[in-house]
Amino acid sequence: MTQRTFSIIKPDATKRNLQGAILKMIQDAGLRIVAMKMIRMTKEQAEGFYAVHSDKPFFGSLTDFMCSGPVVVSVLEGENAVSSYRQAMGATNPANADEGTIRKSFALDIEKNSVHGSDAPETAAVEIAYFFNQLEIVG
Ligand code: ATP
Ligand code: MG
Question: Is the pTM of this model over 0.70?
Answer without folding.
Answer: yes
